[in-house]
Amino acid sequence: MLSEGMGIRAVSRLTGLHQQTVLNVLARAGSKAGRFLDATIRSVQPESVQADEMFCFVGCKDRENVTHDPFKGSQYLFMAIDSKSKLIISHVIGQRTANNTEALLKDLKQRVAGRMQLTTDGFECYKVEVARAFGKEIDFAQQVKIFGRTPDAFDPYRRYSPPVCTGFRVHVRKGKPNPALISTSYMERTNLTVRLFNRRFTRLTLGYSKKFEYLIHSINLMIFHFNFMHVHAAHGQTPAQAAGLTGKQWTFSDLLLERDI
Fold first, then answer.
1. CATH 2.70.98 is right for the domain spanning 8-257
2. What is the pTM of this model?
C-alpha cells in the first residue's frame, strides 16, 4: 500500500493499525530499502542516462517557512535513469541547489561502469557539476523545451493544464553525444510514475510529507518497488532484471528477510 500511492491515514484506516505504527513500518522498510539500493545498484553499464528533478514540499510551502528550515518547504527529487532498462540508478532528495546536483552526479559516477551518454534539462547547475564529476569521460547534452502560449491560456478550465511544447533546443556540453539518444522523455515518464506511486508527490492534495525523514523513507521504498518489483511494459522484466542486477522479480518479503546490510 505504501508503495502504490496510498497515504498514511488511508493505510491506517484499511489495516486498522495506528498511524504511528504505519510510520514505524515505513521507517524500518524504507531505511532497509535505502541500504539495499545503495549496496546493489553498482557497476551498471548504461548506454544512455537521463536525469531530471521533480518538485514536492515538506511541512509547508516556502512562504510559510519563516525559520528558513532547510528540511521544510520546497524539496526536489533528483533522479538518473538508464534509458534502456528504465532502472533508477541514482537519486538524491533535497533543495534544488548546486550541492545536491553535485551529489547526484557523484553518486551516479560511482554506480556506472565505463563511458556513458547523459541528457538533462536546462537546469544551469548541470553545466558545471557534470564537468566536475565526470571530467572528459562523458558525452553530455542538455535538451531545453520551448513552450508556446496557447490562445486559451487564461481559460479557467485550463488553469492546471500544462502549456503546449512547440519545440526544443539541444546544447552539446561534453564529448560527442549520439543525437538519436538526446532525450529526457523516459525520465519525464518516470516522473509521472513517481507521482502515481508516491502520494507525497501528488499535486493539490493534503498528502504531502510532514517530516523530511519520512519523505526519504517513502522514496527509498518506492524506488525499490520500481526497480526490483515492478515489471516494466517496455521489456517485460523489472528494471533490475533488464540491467542484469538480479535474476528474479523481488517482493517486499524478500527485502525484509534479506540479511541486513
1. no
2. 0.91
